[in-house]
UniProtKB/TrEMBL annotation:
GO terms for cellular component: mitochondrial small ribosomal subunit. Pfam families: Ribosomal_S15. This is Small ribosomal subunit protein uS15m. One of its GO terms (molecular function) is structural constituent of ribosome. It comes from the Eukaryota. Belongs to the universal ribosomal protein uS15 family. GO terms for biological process: mitochondrial translation. Its main location: mitochondrion. It is found in: Mitochondrion. Keywords: Mitochondrion, Ribonucleoprotein, Ribosomal protein, Transit peptide. SMART domains: Ribosomal_S15 (SM01387). InterPro entries: Ribosomal_uS15, uS15_NS1_RNA-bd_sf, uS15_ribosomal.
Length: 273
């Protein structure tokens, strides 16, 4: 067993010595950030002059002056009333009827509104530990509800994601710990793959550059064979169609080669400029 492992260990060590790979630990993204929670949209646009729900239904406020309406607006009522309107706006997007309050869709919309309000708060106060904890608990709860909805009604699940502008990110089946050794191995494999692809590209370009002279020589050889067969009255194995086919291939190669030459000239001019 050791005899089999020694050559691979030596080879890996040699590759690490030859290839200059630098590993940088990825930047940590908190769980409440939209990149990890799956929220593609921020807070909905609610005008500061909007009235809270309990005052908007009042008949007296409708006939009141603008100064009174401004006093009772969310601009002077605080963040709590603003968050209520955010949740209401998201719930109204997916609500079936006015009494729909406890279905899976409305619960997800209500939790989504709460999460986005907490995300806005954490952007301003990133050291608020209680808000971080609450946001993480709500994100996990929403994932469970989305998983339930996905299992029992997939069409409604897709419709809900589109309406609320969410990306579903399920819990990973197993925890994979990031390590420097594994990352260096992947970087080395990527570097070797780039070298291999580069050499294959160079070899392909070399073969394509030799294709034109080869086709030209082939046309001359086919014409010579046909003329000698006709002259010596032998069975003709090379037809005019065969020669025209090779000539067509040669013309196509000339067009491609001209385009490549023009692209190279443009690239050189850009580098010189």
């Amino acid at each position: 067993m050791l005899r089999r492992l020694i050559p691979s260990i030596v080879q890996i060590r040699g590759v690490k010595q030859l290839v200059d790979t630098k590993w940088v630990r990825p930047e940590y993204v908190p769980a409440y950030k939209p990149e990890r929670s799956g929220d593609l949209e921020g807070l909905p646009v609610i005008p500061p002059s909007a009235l809270p729900e309990e005052y908007a239904l009042s008949e007296e406020i409708k006939n009141a002056s603008e100064a009174v309406k401004q006093i009772f607006s969310i601009e002077h009522r605080g963040k709590k009333e603003y968050n209520k309107l955010v949740k209401k706006e998201l719930i109204n997007r997916i609500r079936r009827h006015q009494y729909d309050e406890n279905t899976a869709e409305t619960r997800i919309a209500r939790i989504t509104g709460h999460i986005r309000c907490l995300q806005d708060t954490l952007e301003k106060f990133p050291r608020n530990v209680q808000a971080k904890k609450t946001a993480q608990e709500l994100i996990d709860k929403r994932k469970k509800l989305l998983k339930f909805l996905r299992q029992y009604d997939y069409k409604k699940f897709e419709w809900l994601l589109e309406k609320l502008n969410i990306v579903y990110k399920a819990h990973p089946e197993s925890l994979h710990k990031l390590s420097r050794k594994e990352s260096l191995r992947k970087l080395t494999e990527m570097h070797c793959e780039e070298i291999r692809q580069g050499k294959l590209t160079e070899y392909r370009n070399l073969l394509e550059s030799q294709q034109g002279p080869f086709l030209k020589d082939k046309i001359d050889a086919l014409k010579l064979i046909r003329s000698e067969q006709i002259e010596l009255q032998l069975p003709i194995t090379v037809t005019e169609q065969d020669i025209k086919k090779v000539e067509q291939q040669f013309e196509e190669w000339k067009i491609k080669d001209d385009l490549k030459q023009q692209a190279r000239k443009k690239k050189k001019n850009l580098l010189l400029e």
